[in-house]
Amino acid sequence: MDPVYPAAPLEAPKGSGELLAAPEHQHLLPPAPPSYDQATSTPAEAKGPALEAPTSAATATQHTVIVIPTSPYGPEPIDVQCPHCHNFARTRVSCRPNSRTHLFALLLCLFQLYCCVCLPYCISSCMNTNHYCGMCDRYLGTYDRK
Q1: Residue 133: what are its φ and ψ, rounded to 5°?
Q2: pLDDT, tens digit, for every residue of 8-55?
Q3: Burial class of residue 42 in the structure, from the number of CB atoms within 10 Å of its CB (0-12 exposed, 13-18 middle, 19+ buried)
Q4: What is the pLDDT of residues 52-92, one digit of tens each?
Q5: What are phi and psi of 59, to 5 degrees?
Q6: Looking at per-residue confidence, does 56 or 125 come out higher?
Q7: How many H-runs (helices) and E-runs (strands) does the chain carry?
Q8: Would you give the DSSP letter of residue 60?
Q9: Domain limits for position 121
Q10: What is the dihedral of CA 76, 105, 97, 71, to 10 degrees?
Q11: Number of structural domains in the chain
Q12: Which candidate, 37, 19, 20, 26, places its Cα nearest to that of 4?
């Protein structure tokens, strides 16, 4: 078996203090790191190929469309898996008045239909619908009337 390293390092010329490897073992040594000037300057071949400007026919404008998810809840109770108790149950709905309900009541007052003022508060289609879990009774979401 041949030794990998030379038996004794060769001395460089007197006064330099450097060690030289034998020519037959030169291929075993790693390449010397670049000098500071070589490392800080950017040679032209390292920059890569020049990018060509696209022609006007090839340019295309990209548009990003952001879709806001709508509520899965509707005006009627639905079957869902509760994120809190993880049971499959039908939601319990509760109607709550919104600003539109109050606006209808105000309009009825302005037209002096005082006997009909309570109607927007009795009609569920004029109000938002809140959904609650049928098992644990926790709030799940709202269906907003538009």
Answers
A1: -65, 135
A2: 655 555 555 555 556 666 677 778 888 888 888 765 555 555 555 555
A3: exposed
A4: 555 555 567 788 877 766 778 888 999 999 999 999 999 99
A5: -75, 135
A6: 125
A7: 3, 7
A8: -
A9: 90-143
A10: 60
A11: 1
A12: 26
Q: Is residue 113 part of a domain?
A: yes
Question: CA dihedral in degrees (6, 12, 14, 16; nearest 10)?
Answer: -120
Cβ atoms < 10 Å from Cβ of 126: 19
The answer as to whether 138 is a domain residue is yes
b vs e for 101-121, b when ≥16 Cβ sit within 10 Å of the residue's Cβ? Answer: beebbeebeeeeeeeeeeebe
* Single pTM value for the model: 0.50
pLDDT at 3: 63
In a domain, residue 3? The reply is: no
Answer yes or no: is 44 within a domain. Answer: no
